[in-house]
Amino acid sequence: MRRLLAVIAITGCTTAPSTPPSAAPAQPASPYGFTVEEEARILQLEDRREYDPAIVEQWVHHPNSLHRSRIALALGRIGPHTFIDSNGNGERDSTERQAGVEDLAGLANDRDPTVRVATAFALGQIGDVTASDTLLQLAADRESADVAAEAIEALSKFGAKLPLDSYRRFTAEDQREGVRARAVRYLFRFRSDDASEIAANALASPSNAIRQEAAYALARRAYAPARARLELLINDGNPLTRAYVARALGVIAAPESIPVLIGALADQHPWVRTNAVVAIARIAAKSPPVGDAKDTVRVIGAAEDPDSGVRASAIEALGYYAPKNEVARKRLLEMSTTGSRWERELAAGAIAKQLNDEKLLPADLSGWAKVRVLEAASAVSDRLRPQYARDSEALVRASALSTIADDHVAANLSLIRAGLDDPDVIVRGYAIDRYSKSQDGAKLATLTAAEERARRDRQDDARLSAIRGLAEIDYSDRESFLRGLLPDADPVVRRVAADLIEQKLNKRRPQFTPLAVQRNDYAQIVEWARQPHSASIRMARGRIEIALLTHDAPMTTWNFAQLAGNHFFDNTTFMRVVPNFVIQGGDPRNDMEGSPGYSIRDESNLQKYTRGAVGMALSGPDTGGSQFFITHSPQPHLDGGYTIFGRVTDGMNAVVDPTERGDRVDAIVIDQKR
Fold this sequence. Notes:
This protein is of the alpha+beta class.
């Protein structure tokens, strides 16, 4: 439900490269770049997740390397959803591979390194482990470090399916620095102590890049034996390394790291201070602080930091100190009434979580403050839940239901049943989800009726909840019901049904593509995407200027531009802000649940989530619509998982960084800077 975040340049040029002088220069037989018709056909195949063997064969062997690169990228988008059904039985048998894997194996030997980079990326996106030999070949590429690094990242996506020993050699000191750094960065994907120990040893590297990536890997997976080595790097000269170290110490959550993290609250860089105070809160959640006066003063100081993200992050930590320190308690209560809107919301949640007295909450809580109270998962949350379940705001009613733990469903069944008839689709969706965990005797009939009703909704959230709930019940028509959804008009319903057949019925994965996408504007999109385009997000704080990456994500940028042109984003907000991570907007409901009523396909690409990247928020594969996010800092774990369709060119420091949850967007305009 709630959504989240080396480039192949696809030129639209139709001019042939220059030829040696001659009396009568010959004209090229075909244009150097793509024709509109060619590009439009590829967009259609991607949109339908359709594998067309004739087109693939033609483009894989095309004399123009741009065509070969482009088809590799297309296969990386189609292949995760479509397999080669050799025997035509509609199910993926054990000997059948995902679409494109064999074609890409041929491109792994392409003479053009750009094609090989795209090939490596595509194989990682497809995720068929039978491609590991091809990726190991590409990872050993001596001609191009870019090819090797991209192949190593792709290999890491296989994670535990790939023997660590086959990956380990790429982390060795004799590797090229950039290649080794990429290998070290993604060690966390192996989810093993052996992999984490490799990262921990790399913390001692003289290379700034290697230390940074080692700290990043350890920040993604807790590995307690690395604690002392991490603490030694809290004063590293690289602020990113220091920020990753602080996060890694929070993931380990050892009380012994508190003095180091308290010291990091004085760091000159807000990323480090943010991660340090978040880490302090994580440790406090595991080992409640004793109320040391000096530590408390530093945490209170963080709650008054000049950076809004640090201040917001400090509130949860402050809550852990408040029960045992009167100064911290007083400051927390003050923030609940005198802080910014965002700070008041977060303070309400901290009060509910730590002070166990709803009388301490301000009387005029906003809808989002009530959500924070419910998310606190405390006795206060439970006592206020019946009242909030009847709130006038849908986001509060939805949170009152979504925050009911599985073991509390029976005690709240009357609230859940009432939610099944809520007029709001999101509230109903959460009610269905919680109801499906009950032992109610009428569950099958109730969920069947809920699914039938939800087919009339503009958004598919309630319907998807009902489908998942029905898949959990062992009844005679379960398989026929799920298979009946495979040709559904909603692409997300199709994909979810295929997932459930595989996961809940333990049957072979059914083919649910090509999708029945009805549109005829692909050529128009191609023509539009051949020109540079920009977006300007206009807010009271100022403007965020964005260069749209039309070549990398033509369908996504076109969709964004169409919504903006129709004033879809007017008077929305950045309804989600996670300090030192992202700001997220584009939701007409302003509650992280909204969409334009349809979904678009992901356009994974070779762009990377560095600072200022603009990506599509998702709640699963191919669920993008209107919600987007902007990264505060590099977020490599998002690469390849969320479509990057823009980059901020102006406004990061002055607008993006200080943006708080709830800040309003007046409008988003296309190609109208200043």
